[in-house]
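B., you asked whether I could sanity-check this one before it goes into the benchmark set. Here's the sequence:
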Amino acid sequence: MRAVLLATAPLLIGVALIMAGNGLQGSLLALRATLEGFPASVTGIIMSGYYAGFLFGSQLTPRIVERVGHVRVFAALAALASMAILIQAVFVYWESWTLFRALTGFCYSGLYVVIESWLNDRAANENRGRLLAFYTVIQAAAIASGQLMLNLDDPAGFQLFTLVAILISASVLPVLLVSAPMPRFGESRKLSLRTLYRLSPLGMIGTLGAGVTLSGFSGMGAVYARTIGFSVSEVSLYMALAVIGSAIFPWPLGWLADRFDRRRVITVLTTALALLCVAGLYLAEISRPGLLAVVFLYGGLSMPIYSLSVAHANDRLEPDQMVAASSSLMLAYGLGAILGPLTVGQAMVHLGPPGYFIYLASAHVLIGLFAVWRMIRRPS
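And here's what the prediction gave me:
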């Protein structure tokens, strides 16, 4: 495992810088939109542009990687993402922000495809869970640090936009300047969602479900917390605890997933997450500290669903399928991420604030039942 981490260290350093930039710009744009007087509905349109671009990036990136390779694509997408945030600092209109937020989503989706196919090429089945868990920890820690950078300057100014661009641009340096073996992919084999489902049903459904639950939880979490009476500082704590939890739990869970059937680990996790949602329903009425503890645990246990589903899918793939598989998995995640906030929002409209946890609990139960069904259909 140590050799794998050393071999992927330059890429993981680049991941940390890119995700710090992503964490900062997400909070920065939402806050700046409020300062500019954009209505909440318009801000929602701007933020949804990210996932529209995300879907396109997941489909186009494998073709470009096949032609010019991982390193060049990584550098080009990072440069484009850096340009996008600087343009948003110059042209402060919701229409242009929506367009360039979609461009950012395109770039980040493509970067995920490059990064995750690269990591899966370096990993073996016996350490893939731990490597992807470590990758998840780095993502969460970097996003949290990026959000804290919001306090470094006035969001009404240009400086924080520049800092985002610097972080994204700097991510290219360790990848370009360190001599490390590149992924050995030739022409990638096409892999549609249908084919991916046939090869790894739980890998695809788990990734889709992770998109629904993670985006639903994070996208509507602040709305839920405010609806039940949290102050602004309490809302900030609510969201921060989930991110902190997501940085702590993936590594030990990845270690377990490398020693036991990943499907069993996913089943146990989804069961625990559903029970935490039920606990959240109860504690929201009687104990805010108890609810915050639930949020911390939920953040820690929900993030690994994605990495475990990706690892499970890649266990069943050939090396020349991994780029295309990463693209299809990103597509599945992106579709889920679009659905999450929309469907959680509808649940809250019809059921009130409890609809938030009721929906998330139901989603985790469905993922867990599907995992059990797959273990019955394919015992080993």
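One thing to flag: The chain has two domains: 1-178, 195-380. Otherwise nothing jumped out at me.
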